[in-house]
Write a structure and sequence with these properties.
The complex is a heterodimer of chains A (743) and B (154). Chain A has 743 residues and is an alpha+beta fold. Chain A folds into three domains: 3-210, Aldehyde oxidase/xanthine dehydrogenase, molybdopterin binding domain (Aldehyde Oxidoreductase, domain 4); 216-285 and 339-356 and 368-428, Aldehyde Oxidoreductase, domain 4; 435-742, Aldehyde oxidase/xanthine dehydrogenase, molybdopterin binding domain (Aldehyde Oxidoreductase, domain 4), CATH 3.30.365. Chain A has 19 helices and 26 strands. In chain A, the strands form six sheets. Chain A has a seven-stranded mixed sheet, with helices on both faces. A five-stranded mixed sheet of chain A has the order 2-1-5-4-3. In chain A, helix 3 runs parallel beside helix 4, helix 9 packs parallel to helix 10 (398-412) and helix 13 runs parallel beside helix 18 (708-720). Chain A is globular, with a radius of gyration of 27 Å. Residues 1-42 of chain A have low confidence and may be disordered. Classes of the chains: A alpha+beta (743), B alpha+beta (154). Chains A and B meet through helix 1, helix 6, helix 7 and helix 16 of A and helix 1, helix 3, helix 4, helix 5 and helix 6 of B.
Chain lengths: 743, 154
C-alpha cells in the first residue's frame, strides 16, 4: 500500500544518479532536481577559500550558488541568493541554490549563532565580488576596453558607455574561475543596490502552503523501511532483555538490538509505531538526575566547579561614597526544550562501502566525521544531505534521528527512515541548560553604577567539541564523541552601561542534568534577563525611571537611538517603577530592556505592556514594541519574520516553559505537560527596523529573543511591585510572589 | 485483509488495513499525501489537521474505519499552484510559514472556519486556531492572512 505512492512521489521530485541525490531550489518557488555524481561528489571543489566552491556559471547563463549554511525557515534561501545576485550583477531569477550537502557545498560551519548572513553570506558576497572582477577582466580583454569602463549587470558584462555586452557563460566558457576568494575584491556600493534590501518572497513558502514541499519527514527511497527506536525508561539504564515474541503478531517486524540500542523496523510506519508500543523489554534501574526541587542548590554546590573571571572593567570606587544603594539578586532560567513541532526524523542509506544520510541537521559538514566514526567508514565515503525538517532552534533531535537511521540502515542493509515520537522529542532532545545567576551592585542617587558583579553557574562547553554526543551510538556502544556543548552561553553577563567597576565570574560546571545543546541565542536569554532585570532593580533603588536610567549609562549611539525609538513607540511616561496600578485586580504595567547582542552584533530595545490578574496570577503580554538594528538589512520582511518569531517563542519560554523531571527521566513529554504559547497568548507586536546599509549585516534570529525576559519581568514589576526572578512566570509562581509581597 | 473505501480529495481510494484503528494520518501519508504532518499523535498540536465533511479534524485521532464514508480533504486537495484556496493564497502573500511544519494544519483549520463563517473576527480566528501550535512564532501572520483571506484586510 505504501510503495506505489512513495514511488510516484520520488520520481516526480527527485533524480537519482550514482546512488546520490540532491534537492535544489529554483527561485521560482518550485523544487527542482539536480543530479550528482556519487557520494564523494568528486567533480565539485569544496574548499571554502575558492570561488568555485560557492559559485558555478551554468551553460544557460544561470548561476548556481552553493551554500554550506542551511535554511531552517529563517530565510537564507532568499537572502543568500539576494547577496550573490546583487554582488555578481545578475537577476535573482537566474540564481539556482544548493544548500547543506557535504558532497556539493563548502563547509561554512554550522548554521548557528545567527551566522547565516553575517559569516556565510559575507563569504558568498566576497566570492561573488571576486567572480565579478574576474568576469569584468575577461570582458575587458574580449572587448579591448578598460575594466573600469565596464559594468556587470543582468548576467552580462557590458560597456558603461552603451553597446553589446557578453554573457557570463560566454565569458567563462567551460572553464571554472580557479580563483581564491579575494578579500580585496571591490564590493558594490550599497547606494546602488537593487536586490539587497528588498523584501523578496522566500522561495519555499508557496510549496509549504500548497503541500508540495518535501521535508525530511516526507522523503522516501525505494525499498525504504520505517523504524522506531525504543529509548530506556530511565536515563542511563541498560537493556537487560527483549521479548521479541511480544511483537510477533505484527507482520514483518524486525527487532534490532545492538547493546542497549533497541529498535523496531517494519515495512510501513504504522506497523513500526505499534511494534514500538507493544515491544516488551527489560531495562536496568537508573536514577542519575538531581532532584528538581533542589536544582539550584545542586548547581551552586557542584563539587566539580572551576571558576573563571571572564570580564573585569574599571576598578571599585574606594572608599564607597555616602548614600549609595546596594542591591543583590538571584535569577534562574530552567532547562527548556527546542519543542520542535514535528518530532525529529531522518533517512539513511548505508551500504557496505558508503553512506548517505538525509537530515535536517544544522551542521551536515560538522557531523560527517562523527557519522564516519560510528559507521566505521572513511569520512569521504559519508555524505550528509540537508533536507528541511520541523523547525529547530539550535541542536534538537535531528542529528540523533539521523544517527539512529544510519545505525539501523547499516544493521538491516536497506534504507531506513526513523521518526521520533512526541515523547521521544520532548524527553530526549538535547536541552537548553539550566542557568543560575547572582548579581550584586551599587548605585547612587544620580543613577551612576558604582559596582556590578555577576556570577553565573553554567555547564562548560568541552573544548573543540563541534557537536554533541549522539544517543544512538552511545546506546549501541559505538564510537561516539564525548563532552558537553551548550553553546556560547556565558556572553552578555555584563551590562552595556557605564559603570565604575564591572566583573563577571563564571562557575563552570562539569556536568549538566540533561544532555545540553545550544538553544536559540544560547545562554543569552537568561543572561540578558538577569542583567536587564537587575538594571531595573538598580533604577528602582535609585528612584529613577528605567528608560532614563539606561540612557544615562548608555554610550553607544546606535543603542541610544533604539532606546529613544522604543520610548516613542511606547509613548513612554517618565516615572520610576512601580506605577500606580499595583493594587488593581488586573494590574497593568510597562517595562523595557536593551541588549547589544554579544556586545558586538545586533542592537535591540524592547518595550512591553502586560496585564497581571492578581487573583489567578496569570500574565498577559498585551503589546510588544521592538526597535532593531542589525546593520545592513538584506531582506526586511525576512528580518521581521525572525524578530516576530524570536519574540513570540521567547514569551512562550518565559511564561510557560520548564522541562520537568524526576530522578530517572523527563516527565514533561507532551504538549500538556510542556505547554507552549497558543494564539490566545499572542500580543500586539510592533517592529521598528533601523537599516544601516553601510554597516556589516548581523543576524536577526537571536538578538530579539534576549530582550524578552527582562522586558516582561520589568513590566510585571511596574504593574505589581513584585519582582519575578525565576523563569517561567507561571500563575502559581506569580501568585506566590504577590502573596509574599502582601504579607 | 479488510479493505476501506476512502474519499480523499475528490477521488475514491481503496486502502487495505489489518488494523481498523489505524489513524487516518498514516493512511494519508501512505497514499503519498505528505502535506499532512505528524506532530504528536495525541490530538494536542493540530499539525495533522484535515477536513472531514468540511470540518477540521486531527487525522491522528480519526481511525481509518471512522474516516470511511466521509469526504476527506488534505492541503493537496484544497487548492493548487494555479488555483490556490483563498487561505493558501493569503498565506503565501503574507509569507506566513517559517519552518512551515504547522502550516498545513493551520490552513486546514482556517479553511474550515471560513466555510462556517465568512468574516470571522480576529478573536474568532484565534479561538478557532487555538488548537494549532506553531513553534516558530508565525501566529501574527496567520491571523493577518486569515483576515485577508476573508476579505477583511489586505
Amino acid at each position: 500500500m505504501n510503495a506505489p505512492a512513495e514511488k510516484i512521489r520520488f520520481s516526480r521530485r527527485m533524480v537519482v544518479k550514482g546512488g546520490a541525490l540532491i534537492v535544489g531550489f529554483a527561485l521560482t518557488g518550485r523544487q527542482t532536481s539536480v543530479s550528482a555524481q556519487g557520494v564523494a561528489g568528486a567533480s565539485r571543489r569544496l574548499d571554502a577559500r575558492e570561488v568555485d566552491a560557492f559559485l558555478a556559471v551554468n551553460e544557460d547563463g544561470s548561476v548556481t550558488v552553493y551554500c554550506g549554511k542551511v535554511d531552517l525557515g529563517q530565510g537564507l534561501r532568499i537572502a543568500i541568493p539576494q547577496i550573490a545576485a546583487e554582488e555578481l550583477g545578475i537577476g535573482i531569477e537566474r540564481i539556482r541554490y544548493i544548500e547543506g550537502d557535504t558532497a556539493l557545498t563548502p563547509n561554512q560551519g554550522r548554521t548557528s549563532g545567527s551566522t547565516g548572513i553575517q559569516r556565510g553570506g559575507m563569504q558568498i558576497r566576497q566570492a561573488a565580488a571576486t567572480a565579478r572582477k574576474a568576469l569584468v577582466d575577461l570582458a575587458a580583454q574580449r572587448l579591448n576596453l578598460k575594466p573600469e569602463d565596464l559594468i556587470a549587470t543582468d548576467g552580462e558584462v557590458r560597456p558603461k558607455a552603451g553597446g553589446a555586452g557578453i554573457g557570463f557563460a560566454s565569458l567563462l566558457g567551460d572553464r571554472q574561475f580557479n580563483l581564491k576568494l579575494d578579500p580585496n575584491a571591490p564590493l558594490k556600493d550599497p547606494a546602488g543596490y537593487t536586490i539587497v534590501g528588498k523584501s523578496l518572497p522566500r522561495p519555499d513558502v508557496a510549496a509549504k502552503c500548497l503541500g508540495t514541499a518535501t521535508y525530511v519527514h516526507d522523503f522516501a527511497l525505494p525499498g525504504m523501511q520505517h523504524a522506531r527506536v525504543i529509548r530506556p525508561p530511565a536515563i542511563g539504564a541498560t537493556l537487560v532483555s527483549v521479548d521479541e515474541d511480544s511483537v510477533k503478531r505484527l507482520p514483518g517486524v524486525k527487532v534490532v538490538r545492538i547493546n542497549s540500542f533497541l529498535a523496531v523496523v517494519a515495512d510501513d510506519e504504522w506497523t513500526a509505531v505499534r511494534a514500538a508500543r507493544d515491544l516488551r523489554a527489560q531495562w536496568s534501574e537508573a536514577s542519575v538526575l538531581p532532584a528538581q526541587d533542589k536544582l539550584v542548590e545542586t548547581l551552586r554546590t557542584d563539587p566539580g566547579i572551576t571558576d573563571q573571571t571572564i570580564v573585569t572593567k574599571g576598578t571599585p570606587v574606594s572608599p564607597q561614597p555616602q548614600n549609595i544603594k546596594t542591591v543583590a539578586a538571584s535569577y534562574f532560567w530552567p532547562m527548556q526544550s527546542h519543542a520542535s513541532l514535528g518530532p525529529s526524523c531522518a533517512v539513511a542509506d548505508v551500504r557496505a562501502d558508503e553512506a548517505t544520510v538525509w537530515t535536517a541537521s544544522q551542521g551536515t559538514h560538522d557531523n560527517r566525521a562523527t557519522f564516519a566514526r560510528f559507521l566505521g567508514l572513511p569520512e569521504d565515503k559519508v555524505r550528509l544531505i540537508y533536507l528541511e525538517g520541523s523547525g529547530c532552534y539550535g541542536m534538537n533531535g535531528h542529528e540523533d534521528a539521523a544517527a539512529d537511521a544510519a545505525i539501523l540502515s547499516q544493521a538491516v542493509g536497506r534504507p531506513v527512515r526513523v521518526q521520533w515520537s512526541r515523547a521521544d522529542e520532548h524527553g530526549w532532545d538535547p536541552k537548553g541548560p539550566p542557568q543560575l545567576l547572582d548579581i550584586a551592585g551599587a548605585v547612587d542617587a544620580d543613577g551612576r553604577i558604582l559596582d556590578w558583579r555577576t556570577e553565573m553557574w553554567i555547564p562548560q562547553t568541552t573544548k573543540g567539541l563541534l557537536n554533541i554526543p549522539l544517543l544512538g551510538p552511545q546506546a549501541a556502544g559505538l564510537d561516539n564523541i564525548v563532552g558537553l556543548n551548550p553553546g556560547l552561553i556565558s556572553q552578555n553577563g555584563d551590562p552595556p552601561y557605564a559603570a565604575d567597576h564591572i566583573q563577571v565570574v563564571v562557575h563552570w560546571l562539569k556536568e549538566a542534568p540533561l544532555r545540553p545543546a545550544p538553544l536559540r541565542s544560547p545562554g543569552k536569554p537568561a543572561n540578558c534577563f538577569a542583567v536587564e532585570s537587575f538594571t531595573d532593580e538598580l533604577a528602582a533603588a535609585a528612584g529613577i525611571d528605567p528608560l532614563e536610567f539606561r540612557l544615562r549609562g548608555l554610550k553607544n549611539p546606535r543603542g541610544i537611538e533604539l532606546v529613544k525609538r522604543v520610548a516613542t513607540m511606547m509613548k513612554w511616561q517618565t516615572r520610576p517603577s512601580p506605577g500606580a496600578d499595583a493594587k488593581a485586580a488586573v494590574a497593568r504595567g510597562r517595562g523595557m530592556s536593551y541588549v547589544h547582542y554579544k556586545h558586538s552584533e545586533t542592537f535591540v530595545a524592547m518595550g512591553m505592556e502586560v496585564a497581571v490578574e492578581r487573583a489567578s496570577g496569570s500574565i498577559k503580554v498585551e503589546r510588544v514594541c521592538c526597535a532593531h538594528d542589525c546593520g545592513q538589512i538584506i531582506n526586511p520582511d525576512g528580518v521581521r519574520a525572525q524578530i516576530e518569531g524570536g519574540i513570540l517563542q521567547t514569551i512562550s519560554r518565559v511564561l510557560l516553559e520548564e522541562v520537568k523531571f524526576d530522578r530517572s527521566h523527563v516527565l514533561s513529554v507532551d504538549w500538556s505537560s510542556y505547554p507552549i504559547l497558543r494564539f490566545s497568548g499572542v500580543p500586539k507586536l510592533e517592529i521598528d527596523l533601523v537599516d544601516r546599509p553601510n554597516q556589516p549585516p548581523f543576524g536577526a534570529g537571536e538578538a530579539s529573543c534576549t530582550a524578552v525576559g527582562a522586558a516582561l519581568a520589568n513590566a510585571v514589576y511596574d504593574a505589581t511591585g513584585v519582582r519575578l526572578r525565576t523563569v517561567p512566570f507561571t500563575p502559581e509562581r506569580v501568585r506566590a510572589a504577590l502573596n509574599s509581597k502582601a504579607s | 485483509m479488510p479493505s476501506y473505501d476512502l474519499r480523499v480529495n475528490g477521488s475514491v481510494r481503496q486502502v487495505d488495513s489489518s488494523d481498523a484503528d489505524k489513524p487516518l494520518l498514516y493512511v494519508l501519508r501512505g497514499l503519498g499525501l505528505m502535506a499532512t504532518k505528524f506532530g504528536c499523535g495525541l490530538g494536542q498540536c493540530g499539525a495533522c489537521t484535515v477536513l472531514a465533511d468540511g470540518a477540521a479534524v486531527q487525522s491522528c485521532q480519526m481511525t481509518i474505519a471512522d474516516a470511511q464514508g466521509k469526504a476527506i480533504t488534505t492541503l493537496e486537495g484544497l487548492g493548487s499552484a494555479s488555483k490556490p484556496h483563498p487561505v493558501q493564497a493569503a498565506f503565501i502573500e503574507h509569507q506566513v510559514p517559517q519552518c512551515g511544519y504547522c502550516t498545513s494544519g493551520m490552513i486546514m483549520s482556517a479553511a474550515a472556519l471560513l466555510s462556517q463563517k465568512q468574516k470571522p473576527s480576529e478573536d474568532e480566528i484565534r479561538s478557532a486556531l487555538e488548537v494549532n501550535l506553531c513553534r516558530c512564532g508565525s501566529h501574527i501572520r496567520v491571523v493577518n492572512a486569515v483576515m485577508a483571506a476573508s476579505g477583511q484586510r489586505g
